[in-house]
Amino acid sequence: MACPQPNYWDYLPGGIYTVNLRDVKDPLQGNYLPNCSLMAVLASLAWKKTIPALQNHTITKELTEPYTFTLYTAANTPVTQKTSGKLPLDANRKLLHAKSDTSATEIWPALWEKAYYQWISKKDPPDYCLYQQWQNPETVLLHLTGKTPAKTKSNGISCLVAGTTFSQIYSLCESYARSTINYIIKMPAVAWTFDPAVTNPAKVQFSPTTIAARHTYSLLGVVKTGTEVTQQYIVLRNPYGTTKRDPASGSVSLYNPGGLWCSQNIYLSDTSDGIFAIRVDDFVKYFEGYAWMPL
Q: Over the chain, what HEC string results?
């Protein structure tokens, strides 16, 4: 899909930096940029509440104070990026690129996206359409956290080992007080799928309705109902959110019981929010690797 230029650079009518709290469900990837890594990292930072606090502005044309963001050129090397509340809008004055999946007026994902591209391009406003390549999520984690990520990655010839993979991710998690099987990750983390044009060890079929190819997901935690691999699941959030929903039923093995998972608004039985638990033996067939920010 061709990347259009904005019809307007302006304030979103009724735009609010954050409607409630920054939520893992907020960052929604737009239709024109392959910036799933940026959106997945933003969602992971919101999940762990590690995004630096900003004042909850309502965007009006009277707002003259710019937003200030901290980004990192390298580990522990912060730089400041300021940007105004003017965002790329379409002909209907709706957000053209990143938006919130929970509120049409919430703009924090769009502002972070603008600040990030402004910082990379050193242009104001940036030309988003120049960024049409998938970006390594490890790089984005570093840019947004200032720490060099740790990672586990396939060698490209074979898949990761299911049992070993679950054990490592499980070790990065902590128990959830109201559950004996649900565990949340301790730090911002992401996982990304194989690029089948390069390697596809398990010869699986990628698609937007199953698991997308060369696509980055937020890694939220695990579900462990037993000691067997068939009883162990990895919980992920797709930055496509409600746009493309959870993987189609039957395409992969999912865990979706009723009741809350590890948050007051996350139900694994909800197939429309892009948050799902995939069995680890399926996870390793589709996912090339995962990375996390060291504590």
A: CCCCCCCEEECCCCCECCCCCCCCCCEECCCCCCCHHHHHHHHHHHHCCCCCCCCCCECCCCCCCCEEEEEEEECCEEEEEEECCCEEECCCCCECCCEECCCCCECHHHHHHHHHHHHHHCCCCCCHHHCCCCCCHHHHHHHHHCCCCEEEECCCCCCCCHHHHHHHHHHCEEECCCCCCEEEECCCEEEEECCCCCCCCCCCCCCCCCCCCCCEEEEEEEEECCCCHHHEEEEEECCCHHHCCCCCECCECECCCCCCCCCCCCCCCCCCCCEEEEEHHHHHHHEEEEEECCC
